[in-house]
Design brief:
Length: 112
Protein backbone atom coordinates (compact mmCIF):
# COMPACT_ATOMS: atom_id res chain seq x y z
CA UNK A 1 0.00 0.00 0.00
CA UNK A 2 1.25 3.47 -0.92
CA UNK A 3 1.76 5.68 2.13
CA UNK A 4 1.54 9.46 1.87
CA UNK A 5 4.37 11.53 3.36
CA UNK A 6 3.84 13.31 6.69
CA UNK A 7 3.08 17.04 6.78
CA UNK A 8 6.30 19.09 6.39
CA UNK A 9 5.03 21.71 8.87
CA UNK A 10 3.57 19.77 11.78
CA UNK A 11 4.74 16.20 10.95
CA UNK A 12 1.18 14.86 11.11
CA UNK A 13 0.77 11.39 9.62
CA UNK A 14 -2.88 12.02 8.64
CA UNK A 15 -2.23 13.70 5.29
CA UNK A 16 -4.60 13.09 2.40
CA UNK A 17 -4.73 13.81 -1.33
CA UNK A 18 -7.01 16.46 -2.79
CA UNK A 19 -6.48 16.32 -6.54
CA UNK A 20 -2.77 16.99 -7.10
CA UNK A 21 -2.31 18.60 -3.69
CA UNK A 22 -1.52 16.96 -0.38
CA UNK A 23 -3.39 18.38 2.62
CA UNK A 24 -2.82 18.18 6.37
CA UNK A 25 -6.10 18.11 8.32
CA UNK A 26 -4.42 19.14 11.58
CA UNK A 27 -2.66 22.35 10.56
CA UNK A 28 -4.30 23.02 7.18
CA UNK A 29 -1.00 23.11 5.25
CA UNK A 30 -1.27 22.30 1.53
CA UNK A 31 1.61 21.28 -0.76
CA UNK A 32 2.34 19.27 -3.88
CA UNK A 33 4.51 16.18 -4.17
CA UNK A 34 6.82 18.14 -6.51
CA UNK A 35 7.36 20.84 -3.86
CA UNK A 36 8.22 18.20 -1.30
CA UNK A 37 10.67 16.47 -3.67
CA UNK A 38 12.40 19.80 -4.37
CA UNK A 39 12.64 20.53 -0.64
CA UNK A 40 14.13 17.09 0.07
CA UNK A 41 16.71 17.39 -2.70
CA UNK A 42 17.52 20.96 -1.70
CA UNK A 43 16.47 23.94 -3.70
CA UNK A 44 18.97 25.07 -6.31
CA UNK A 45 19.63 28.79 -6.12
CA UNK A 46 20.36 30.45 -9.45
CA UNK A 47 21.60 33.92 -10.38
CA UNK A 48 19.88 36.31 -12.81
CA UNK A 49 21.40 34.47 -15.80
CA UNK A 50 20.36 31.01 -14.60
CA UNK A 51 23.79 29.90 -13.37
CA UNK A 52 23.76 27.73 -10.26
CA UNK A 53 25.25 29.45 -7.20
CA UNK A 54 27.20 27.70 -4.45
CA UNK A 55 28.65 28.70 -1.08
CA UNK A 56 31.92 30.59 -1.50
CA UNK A 57 31.18 31.94 -5.00
CA UNK A 58 31.90 35.50 -6.07
CA UNK A 59 28.98 37.44 -7.55
CA UNK A 60 28.49 40.85 -9.14
CA UNK A 61 25.50 43.12 -8.40
CA UNK A 62 23.51 43.91 -11.58
CA UNK A 63 21.29 46.70 -10.24
CA UNK A 64 21.68 49.61 -7.80
CA UNK A 65 20.32 48.39 -4.48
CA UNK A 66 19.24 50.67 -1.65
CA UNK A 67 20.33 49.50 1.80
CA UNK A 68 17.28 49.34 4.03
CA UNK A 69 17.47 51.72 7.01
CA UNK A 70 20.37 53.66 5.53
CA UNK A 71 21.16 56.17 2.82
CA UNK A 72 23.82 53.85 1.34
CA UNK A 73 23.50 52.24 -2.08
CA UNK A 74 25.18 49.10 -3.40
CA UNK A 75 26.22 50.16 -6.90
CA UNK A 76 26.00 48.16 -10.12
CA UNK A 77 29.17 46.14 -10.68
CA UNK A 78 30.01 45.72 -6.99
CA UNK A 79 31.76 42.37 -6.51
CA UNK A 80 30.77 40.35 -3.48
CA UNK A 81 33.15 37.55 -2.51
CA UNK A 82 32.57 34.40 -0.48
CA UNK A 83 28.76 34.33 -0.44
CA UNK A 84 26.74 31.98 1.78
CA UNK A 85 23.44 30.55 0.52
CA UNK A 86 20.50 30.50 2.93
CA UNK A 87 16.80 29.63 2.84
CA UNK A 88 14.21 32.37 2.90
CA UNK A 89 13.20 35.49 1.05
CA UNK A 90 16.80 36.66 0.59
CA UNK A 91 18.93 33.80 -0.75
CA UNK A 92 22.43 35.17 -0.08
CA UNK A 93 24.22 36.20 3.11
CA UNK A 94 27.38 38.18 2.40
CA UNK A 95 29.64 41.01 3.45
CA UNK A 96 29.80 43.97 1.05
CA UNK A 97 32.98 46.06 1.21
CA UNK A 98 32.27 49.52 2.61
CA UNK A 99 28.78 48.58 3.79
CA UNK A 100 29.03 45.44 5.92
CA UNK A 101 26.94 42.31 6.29
CA UNK A 102 23.80 42.10 4.15
CA UNK A 103 21.29 39.76 2.62
CA UNK A 104 20.77 39.80 -1.13
CA UNK A 105 18.27 38.24 -3.48
CA UNK A 106 19.80 35.99 -6.13
CA UNK A 107 17.78 37.73 -8.87
CA UNK A 108 19.93 40.87 -8.47
CA UNK A 109 23.34 39.22 -8.88
CA UNK A 110 25.27 37.33 -11.53
CA UNK A 111 28.08 34.85 -11.03
CA UNK A 112 31.48 36.43 -11.55
Amino acid sequence: MFQLPPCPQCNSEYTYEDGVQLVCPECGHEWTAAEQAAAEVGAVIRDSNGNELQDGDTVTVIKDLKVKGSSLIVKVGTKVKNIRLVDGDHDIDCKVDGIGPMKLKSEFVKKA
